[in-house]
Amino acid sequence: MKKKYLDIVLTMEEQKRIFEEKKKYEYPQAAVIEALKIAQEKRKWISKDVIYAISEILSIPSVYVQEVATFYSQIFLEPVGRNVIRYCDSVVCYVVGYKKILSILEKYLKIKPGQTTIDNKFTLLPICCLGCCDRAPSMMVNEDTYFNLSDKKIVSILESYL
Amino acid sequence: MNKKIRKPESHPLTWRLKKNNSPIWINEYKLKNGYSALKKSLCKMSPVEIIDEIKKSELKGRGGAGFNTGMKWDMVSKSKISKTKYLVCNADEMEPGTFKDRLLMESIPHQLIEGMIIAAFALQVHCAYIFLRGEYIQALKNLKKSIFEAYKMGYLGKNILKTGFSLNIFIHTGAGRYICGEETALLNSLEGKRANPRFKPPFPVEIGLWGKPTCINNVETLSNVPGIISNGHIWYKNLSKSVDSGTKMMGFSGNVNTPGIWELPFGTTAREILEDYANGMKKGFQLKAWQPGGAGTDFLTPQHIDVPMDFENVSKIGSRLGTAVAMAVDNHINMVKLVYNIEKFFSRESCGWCTPCRDGLPWIVKILKSLSKKKGKEGDIELLEELSLSLSFGKTFCAHAPGAMEPLTSAIKYFRIEFERGIKLK
Fold first, then answer.
1. Is residue A85 within a helix (H) or strand (E), and if so which, with residue range?
2. Among chain A residues, CA nearest to B260
3. What does R_g of chain B's alpha carbons equal in angstroms?
């Protein structure tokens, strides 16, 4: 019965990938972060059902999965847009003017940090230092990092995700 | 002589790099003497001899704290708690203003892998992890490819170089929390838990990952290992201009002409880095303050710019070398607003485990916000100073909050007048 529930929530491909992750560690709980990331890839967020399914596949209490899911900034517990923009608001980007970049993003997307556009295309979030301070200001869109941002660059970057 | 020419005898970490820093894969790495230190270690040296060489080299940890690497290896190797031991590479580079490990992992990943294999052999570890921050996508791709190449060449897996030694290296990616860089929080995160720090003692060298002795070293530290093994500790010590051995990835960012990172001998002055390598401040900008090694280090002023960059000298003038990747603050920046930005970061990234950090940092942020809007109250600066004491070393569970206090207290020390201007006049 339990197995059936897991199969409904996670695809066989996702389960296979999580099983592969488990092999890397002495204890299966260590795979929980990667399992959450795998489950989030297509769904874009982690629902209660996914939490239960991951607890089942890793044989750990669901509260263990829940406490990890609530802790890390890359795990979303509510739906986000198709593209997640993370602008760096750390100290070097502050010195070289991330605020201007943020205001362009806000103006173009018509949202504030933490919000998602009405058409569900973008979510805007801050992130700490992306480790490219020599090419600041910077931001990430999904898995792509952009450096030396300027007004013109931002609009063309965003348009490439439409 | 062009100071930026990288040579094997002076730049052990970066001499192999191409001008555009594009990645060096296994064939090129091997052509450039790569994996020769591994062969020397596994075929001609014993684990004790390797640890001894690292100890004699006086290599210090490059993650910020500067603990003696050889001593750490010695403690792990001598631990009798368990036969199973682990090696973890701390690649969770999230300190604002720091970008050295990113370069090393993206451009020369095999150097790190070679260093890890040598370390694992010295410690008789058969399973090692790279804890990589989740946002470093390119580093992940390059490390994955390099690990695959190393397995294929027989440098990883079972019976490495037919010596009977076996090792697996796995990459574990983080999910976005700064506290994961703290070594005990990193272990909790690696075990699949919230990244709260652990009580110390016991230290990870005795009770670490899954209760086993664990050696945790930074990317740059491990990348130094092949060079030391190939050329010996005397050569390594002679690279430096100061008491600290070897070279260090150092840089400058901010409104300077050519922000960047360079491998330089310890003892190179901050002025030299700023003027000769970063080519000075941009036109119209003057140096007002600088942080020597990341957001959690004390601000220094232009009068300190001639300090030799090493652990002792930077500490003597009231700051920390930290990651040695410096940031220039220019005259257009208001220090209260800048510190507000830094403290907001530390407050956001507090794991919430201990009360002083969880409650103290948001309180500090609130005061700084009102000061930055010129709506501060009489006594606010004194309150900030009092809070800084309550969040200093020994008062909190880990070094997160004390690190956050360094930029705050030093900014008040050197730029008190800007804080006073934030107080609303009656």
1. strand A83-88
2. A134
3. 22
Please spell the DSSP secondary structure of A20-48, one letter per residue: HHHTTSSSGGGGHHHHHHHHHHHHSS--H
Band the pLDDT of B54: cuts 50, 70, 90.
very high
Mean pLDDT score of chain B: 95
Contacts of B191 in chain A (CB under 8 A): 27, 29-30
Q: To 5 degrees, how large is the angle CA B135–CA B259–CA B219?
A: 45
Asked if A30's CB is within 8 angstroms of B96's CB, the reply is: no
Planar angle of CA A67, A73, A78, nearest 5 degrees:
75
Residues of chain A in Cβ contact (below 8 Å) with chain B = 24-27, 29-34, 36-37, 60, 64, 67-68, 71-75, 86, 89-92, 94-96, 127-136, 140, 143-145
Pairing assessment for the beta strands A144-146 and B165-173 based on DSSP bridges: unpaired
Tell me the chain A residues in contact with residue B102 when contact means C-beta distances shorter than 8 Å: 131-132
For chain B, how far is it from start to end, CA to CA, in angstroms?
Answer: 61
The torsion angles phi and psi of B149, rounded to 5 degrees, stand at -60, -40
Task: Give the model's confidence band at B1: pLDDT under 50 very low, under 70 low, under 90 confident, else very high.
Answer: very low
| CA angle at A137 for the pair B62 and B332, rounded to the nearest 5° | 95
Min Cα distance B13 → chain A (Å) is 19
**Could you tell me which residues are beta bridge partners of residue B91?**
B132
CB contacts, 8 Å: B210 with chain A: 26-27
Q: Which of B172, B175, B255 faces A95 most closely, judged by CB atoms?
A: B255
**Pairwise CA distance, residues B384 & B368, whole Å:** 9
Which residue do the tokens 């010195």 mark? A95
CA pair distance B138, A90, nearest whole angstrom: 20
| Bond preceding residue A137 cis, omega within 30 of 0 | yes
Q: Residue type for B198, please?
A: R
Q: What is the pLDDT of residue B202?
A: 94
**Helices (H), ranges, B264-330:** 270-272, 311-316
- The predicted pLDDT at position A3 comes to 60
Mark yes or no for CB contact A128/B210 under 8 Å.
Answer: no
The alpha carbon of residue A120 is apart from the nearest alpha carbon of chain B, in Å, by 23
| Predicted pLDDT of residue B3 | 64
Query: 3-class SS at B356?
Result: helix
